[in-house]
Amino acid sequence: xxxxxxxxxxxxxxxxxxxxxxxxxxxxxxxxxxxxxxxxxxxxxxxxxxxxxxxxxxxxxxxxxxxxxxxxxxxxxxxxxxxxxxxxxxxxxxxxxxxxxxxxxxxxxxxxxxxxxxxxxxxxxxxxxxxxxxxxxxxxxxxxxxxxxxxx
Length: 152
Description:
The chain is mostly helical. It has helices at residues 2-18, 28-39, 68-73, 90-93, 114-125. The protein has one domain.
């Protein structure tokens, strides 16, 4: 029994460590983007034309999650990430609503697991640093920023 418990604790600690870089911080490109890409990017990516359609499909709510500048720009309603403040970051908060709530994200497909939400929260708490990740820069506005401004 003790051996099983120790093994489970080692696996859990390994999972938590995998969500951190060498400096102990969450790495956006390795730890956050893969699950956002799986659950969110299909609806929040650069405009594209679906086969058989003549008009491009635009990102829902104007939000691009396939590029760093999209997180910084946010939506028509404002920023979706507030560096250092997960409670004011709609990107996280909308995933934490009851799944029956009208604003719950994602409304279809794979919802974020509790562990993924914790990693996203930690990334935001740490300042929402993208590292060198820029993502898909297709259609990037000339005045778009690739990172959040650091508050001193």
